[in-house]
Amino acid sequence: MPFAAQIRLQAQDIEGETPLVTPDSIKSGIESGLACEHVEVIGDGQHFQAVVVSGQFAGKSRVQRHQLVYGALGDRMREEIHALSMQTLTPEEWNKKDRIGG
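Below the sequence we write its predicted structure tokens.
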């Protein structure tokens, strides 16, 4: 582990801070809790945007789709992630979006 990363981890332990949330960590959390065809996450450590494509969204409302993503992230939504905006699509909706240019 690079020296700077070790210092950062030690500082977090001393100050009792939670580790910095990254787009990759959110992406991994979504993928581990929800069967996805595609996931993109961008953000600055506090505010994030995600595009999530899953067949499990078929027949679900926007609220139900977001609840599935929140469920995949579990307690992280309450404890670590300050803000997450989402675009939740079925594979069919994703393919149509690509064809017509978004």
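DSSP finds five helices and three strands in the chain.
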